[in-house]
Amino acid sequence: MTSASPITSLITGFVGELRAAGVPVSMVETIDAMRALEVIDIGDRAGLKATLAATLVKAERHLPAFDIAFEVYFAQASRQSTLEARDGTAYAPMEGGDAGGGQAAETDDLRKNLLEALLDHNLEDLASLVGRAVDRLSGFEPGRPVGGTYYLYRTMRRLDMDQLEEMIRQALSEEMGDPTPLEQRLLDEEVAARLEELREAVRDEIRRRLVEDRGREAVAKTLRRPLTEDVDLMHATRADLEAIEDAIVPLTRKLAARLARRRRMLRRGRLDFRKTMRASLATGGVPIDPRFKAPRPHRPEVFLMCDVSGSMATFARFTLQFTYAMSTQFSKLRSFAFIDTVDEVTQ
């Protein structure tokens, strides 16, 4: 037997990670992905990601898990060696607490260069500068069992994101003069977008280095998060609850449409004997055209009694969201909450 090619082994491991994360990927879909890779340029990372997403992911809610797994299994090589070869300088990491003396001056220069790269949307310079920032500020130690969040926090804190935000805001506002409320809002959104671009670049660089140091499987396991449908409501975070709210809307819409279709199918009510016999006079008394009473569908009244104590509050919130999203299917919907006493919370 011939050994599997590197790309086959990589795709097999990638599909295994998707399944471990809860994304359903069948054998047929894996074969489709392998066939699709034969007709694209594997060196085109964006095209590779789009191809794998199109063949392996069936639901939009699974895309975040796919993105994390892709960034781990198809991480680009760390830019540290490229940066040193380009500048001829190896940047020593900053030890101890915050920068001081010459280190502070170097950090200021780095911050200014990052500002210019962000303002000019120069992705090449931004990538090189982010690599330099991770070298000097993250305190990255190969072999140390520390999560990427720790290195990200150290890098962003030492870059002083508040100061960098103020520098970006000042640079962008100089071109606007006296902004209107709308322009001010657009400015705030633009500043937030530039900072998020920097944060994502730092996160990607740290992830690449973790993959080089620990391997894909180990890093993927630490970054794995449960899917929305698998979240434990009792331990859900605020972000999890927001994701659940987004998932509830199409679910309730589908259920409401099914109930409405059921009502349409039940339009024919009980047999109306009098109308049937009256209509049969036209055929000599033979009842060949049955008549039915018009149905009067009744929308139920729903009363919710919700236990909002600590152990049940999250589930009660989920139930309220789900029920009120279907409120058009009920003639009356009233909600009551209780811990020790009962209070109406319909409004």
SSE topology:
Layout (H helix, E strand, L loop, with lengths): L5 H15 L6 H11 L7 H12 L6 H11 L6 H8 L14 H19 L2 H15 L10 H12 L1 H13 L7 H34 L1 H8 L14 H28 L7 H8 L20 E7 L5 H13 L6 E7 L3 E3 L3
Parallel strand pairs: 1-2
Antiparallel strand pairs: 2-3
Provide an overview of this structure:
- This protein has about 350 residues and is mainly α.
- Helices cover about 60% and strands about 5% of the residues.
- It has 14 helices and three strands.
- It has a three-stranded mixed sheet, covered by helices on one side.
- Helix 2 (about 25-35) runs antiparallel to helix 3 and helix 10 packs across helix 11 (about 215-225).
- The longest helix is centred in the middle third of the chain and has 34 residues, at about 180-215.
- The radius of gyration is 30 Å and the shape is elongated.
- The chain starts with 5 loop residues before the first helix and ends with a strand.
- Mean pLDDT is about 80; it is low at about 80-90.
Structure summarized in a few sentences:
This protein is mainly α and 347 residues long. It has 14 helices and 3 strands.
Please tell me how large the radius of gyration is. 30 Å
- The tally of strands reads 3
Morphology call: elongated
How can the largest sheet be summarized?
Answer: 3 strands, mixed
Helix-strand topology string: HHHHHHHHHHHHHEHEE
* Class from secondary-structure proportions: mainly alpha
Which consecutive residue ranges, at least 5 long each, have pLDDT under 50?
80-91
Strand content: under 5%
- Average the pLDDT over all residues and give the rounded result: 79
Secondary structure: helix percent: 55-70%
Number of helices: 14
- Which strand order spans the largest sheet, edge to edge or round the barrel? 1-2-3
Q: Distance N terminus to C terminus?
A: 70 Å
